[in-house]
Amino acid sequence: MNSLVTSKDGTAISYLKLGQGPGVVILHGTMESARSHFELAEALSPNFTVYLPDRRGRGLSGTYGPGFTIQKEVEDVDALLAETRSHFVLGVSSGGLVALQAALDLKTIHKAVIFEPPLVINDSISTDWVERYDNEMANGKVASALVTGMLGAQMGPPTLQRMPKWLLVLFTKLWMAREGSSDGTDGPLPMKVLAPTMHYDFQLAIEMKDKLDIFKNIDIDVLLLGGSKSAPYLKTAVDALENVIPNASRVEFEGLNHGATGNRNRAGQPQRVAAELVSFLT
Predict the structure, then answer these.
(1) How many domains does the chain have?
(2) In 57, 94, 96, 129, which residue has its Cα 20 to 30 A from 36's Cα atom?
(3) 8 Å CB contact between 81 and 22
(4) Which of 132, 153, 152 is nearest to 141 (CA)?
(5) Does 183 share its domain with 216?
(6) 16-31 pLDDT, tens per residue?
(7) 92 and 51 in one domain?
(8) Smallest Cα–Cα separation from 92: which of 243, 279, 253?
C-alpha cells in the first residue's frame, strides 16, 4: 500500500515500504518509478526497512511545480527521511544526482550509495539533443522522443547506437502498445506515462553540469557503484567522484550495465547489488 508524505512546498510524495531494520530510501532513475527497484527492496528487506518513493511527476506523487530545480527533489528526500526516520539513501542514475546533493545538504543522511549519476564533466556527453526531445514531445511524437532520449543518454547496448532511428521508433511503438496501462501501484509505470518525466531528469543533468567540485564537501561515507558495460560518460562520472569525495569507496559490477540495480526483467541483478549494500550499510 502506498503512503504519502508532504514536501516543503506542499507536494505529496508517494512511497512504498517493506522490510524491517534501519531505513533505506531508494531514489529511482530516469524512465523508472518506485516499483522499478522492488526486487532490490525485497533482497534488502531482511536487513532493512526499504522505502521506495515515486519521484515527482510519477504515480501518486505530485507534479514538478513551477521553478523546479534539484533543490525541490532534495526537499522531497528531506521530508521522507524525517517521516521514516531513515538515515541511508541509495540514488540511481538521475536519482543519484539527487542523492549526491542531498548528501551534501542534509545532515540526516549518515551513509549514501550512488549508482552511475549522469554528471556531465568537461562535456563528457552532449546535451544538445534535449531540445529535439522536447520538440518531439510537444508535437506528440512520444516514441520518437523516447528514442531521442535513449540515444542521447546512451542507454541500452552499444548496438542500438548503430541502428536506424526509424527502426528504433517502430520497436518502441510496438513495446508501448504491449505495455498496457498502470498507475504504478501494481508494477512499474509504462513508458508512455514516464516519457514526459525525461525532460525534468535531463534538466537536472544540465543544472548539475560541471559541478563536480562541490561534492568534495560531502563528509559522510559514500559507496559508488557502476557496471563494467555502462556508457563511458557514466564511468567518467564515477571515476571523478571517487577522486573528489573524501570518504568514497567503489564497486564495479563486472558484466552489468546501467540497469544493474533494477528488476530482473530489465536485466538487473538485485541480489548481487543487495549484497554490496548490506556490506556497506552494516
Answers:
(1) 2
(2) 129
(3) no
(4) 132
(5) no
(6) 999 999 999 999 999 9
(7) yes
(8) 253
